[in-house]
Write a structure and sequence with these properties.
By secondary structure, the protein is of the alpha+beta class. About 40% of the residues lie in helices and about 20% in strands. It has helices at about 10-30, 30-35, 50-60, 65-75, 85-95, 100-115, 140-145, 190-200, 220-230, 245-250, 265-270, 275-280, 320-330, 330-345, 355-385, 400-405, 410-415, 420-430; strands spanning about 125-135, 165-175, 180-185, 210-215, 235-240, 255-260, 285-295, 305-310, 395, 435-440, 450-455, 470-475, 475-480. The strands form 3 sheets. The protein has an 8-stranded mixed sheet with strand order 3-2-1-4-5-8-7-6, with helices on both faces. It has a 3-stranded antiparallel sheet with strand order 11-13-12, with no helix packed on it. The chain has a two-stranded antiparallel ribbon with strand order 9-10.
């Protein structure tokens, strides 16, 4: 009966997701991953109450506010409440876990995904967005030494630091909703080397596919352009006003190809061998420059205009100036994913102050974000087909979808690799899809500042004051104020 309610395309997608998740769950239980989990040869040698795969699944699906309730929820979800372990046993097991196992899982899920028929494109292209973020960790000495800290007027050195901070970055598949690669480095490290590393590790996934790489102003570099061309990727990046300045000043229109020459002085500044070799053979590179003006209204109600510059190697015949600007705007979905991770999935809430355990927890949340994202993007596409002629498009409510997957015990199905159970759960989700969809309405926001609230920020995780803004004591009540 359920199958008659939906199109063959959507049901086929549910089959593919169930098969993908089942395969991924089986890999979590594999001996290959077990060996990667070991920090020492003697770790995870026995399969008892809490083997390696339970520890990893526990980290991926953490959602409660304290360890005791998280353990209780996990063992009930997998149908083994009698096997619940103590907090001390959890901490002992978590200290053994090698973060390389979580990094491997971050890479394996996209590898499995691109082998399915679930892959969606934008005008035939896969869109990959790159951007960085910062993550806060507990001020343990190991975390401060490994990742560093942010200096300010009150924090002069490591002894003043109240938190460790990591400079992190992700390569994100915009249309399919999953982070293809993720890296954590020191706070003082640059984002460009992380972006180069992401491309070098993942380019083999896209050998037979057309790709457009999206990035913001920090990534306009001839070395990056050279690497993208080496892999046969297209790109669309927002540029800084002073980049290629002398060439752009000579443009006769707002959309032209320029030919840049890498001279000897510029060549000496290059850091990567692939770029040096490329420009030694041919010192010229052609880049299309698109100028656009963006008009917006500031917080004082005054209309402002900002000039934007985009660098791309996409042909004009396929993407005109307006389409380049629209294409670049797709990059914002990576920012939305960071918000989901930090706010909805509580990325910076840890169950241990051990630096290794915190790092493992961060990568585990990326894995859950990808599982959630694959389902969300497939259902968004389904809703897009259903409401293609409506005034508003619809998409899935991320928070409600997150609750659905956890309430229906996806963790238990992954643990068993139970494809049929995952399929049944997704069929129920299709039945409820119109209950947990939301309209996409541009420029529609609730008042955030000047509101009276009952509580201040109840948790340590927040993002730009969007979920738990700062408050002030105003006439005996709490009133929200701008961050």
């Amino acid at each position: 009966m359920i199958l008659l309610l939906f199109s063959k395309v959507s049901v086929s997608g549910m089959d593919s997701i169930a098969r993908l998740f089942s395969r991924f769950g089986n890999y979590i239980r594999s001996e290959e991953l077990r060996s990667l989990c070991r920090s020492h040869a003697s770790d995870f040698t026995r399969v008892y109450k809490f083997p390696w795969y339970d520890l990893i699944l526990y980290m991926i699906f953490r959602s409660e506010k304290c360890v005791s309730s998280e353990l209780s929820k996990y063992f009930n979800a997998i149908g083994k409440p009698e096997n619940q372990i103590s907090k001390q046993a959890l901490f002992k097991a978590a200290k053994k876990l090698n973060v390389n196992a979580l990094i491997k899982l971050v890479h394996v899920l996209p590898e499995f995904f691109y082998e399915t028929d679930l892959v969606k494109t934008y005008h035939g292209y896969i869109l990959l967005a790159e951007d960085g973020t910062t993550l806060e960790l507990m001020p343990e000495w190991a975390a401060i030494l490994n990742y560093g800290f942010a200096k300010n007027q009150t924090v002069k050195d490591e002894f003043d630091a109240t938190k460790a901070v990591s400079r992190s970055a992700a390569l994100y598949d915009v249309i399919n909703g999953l982070i293809v690669d993720f890296t954590m480095k020191r706070y003082t490290d640059a984002e460009m080397p992380m972006a180069i590393g992401h491309l070098q590790r993942t380019h083999s996934l896209y050998q037979d596919k057309k790709v457009i790489y999206l990035a913001d102003r920090n990534y306009d570099s001839v070395e990056l352009f050279a690497l993208l061309e080496l892999y046969g990727f297209n790109y669309c990046l927002r540029g800084k006003n002073n980049f290629f300045k002398h060439y752009i000043e000579k443009m006769a229109s707002d959309d032209e190809w320029i030919e840049v020459t890498i001279d000897a002085a510029w060549l000496k500044r290059l850091k990567y061998s692939f770029a040096i070799e490329r420009f030694q053979k041919d010192p010229k590179i052609r880049v299309r420059v698109v100028k656009r003006s963006y008009t917006y209204t500031d917080e004082k109600g005054i209309e402002q205009t900002q000039d934007l510059i985009f660098f791309t190697n996409l042909p004009k015949e396929e993407f005109d100036s307006d389409e380049i600007a629209l294409l670049y705007s797709k990059r914002w979905q990576l920012e939305v994913s960071y918000k989901t991770l930090k706010s909805t999935l509580e990325w910076e809430r840890y169950f241990s102050n051990g630096t290794n355990t915190e790092t493992c927890s961060i990568y585990a949340k990326v894995i859950y974000h990808n599982l959630l994202g694959i389902v969300r993007k497939h259902l968004d596409a389904y809703l897009g087909n259903q409401f293609s002629n409506n005034k508003y498009q619809y998409q899935m409510n991320v928070a409600q979808l997150n609750e659905f997957l956890k309430h229906h015990k996806l963790v238990r199905m992954l643990r068993a690799g139970n494809r049929s159970a995952i399929r049944r759960m997704l069929e129920i989700l299709l039945l409820l899809i119109h209950k947990i969809k939301v309209p996409v309405r541009p420029n529609r926001h609730f008042q955030r500042w000047g509101r009276i609230v009952q509580d201040s920020n109840p948790h340590r995780f927040s993002l730009d004051g969007r979920n738990y803004p700062r408050v002030r004591d105003y006439q005996g009540v709490l009133q929200t104020v701008k961050p």
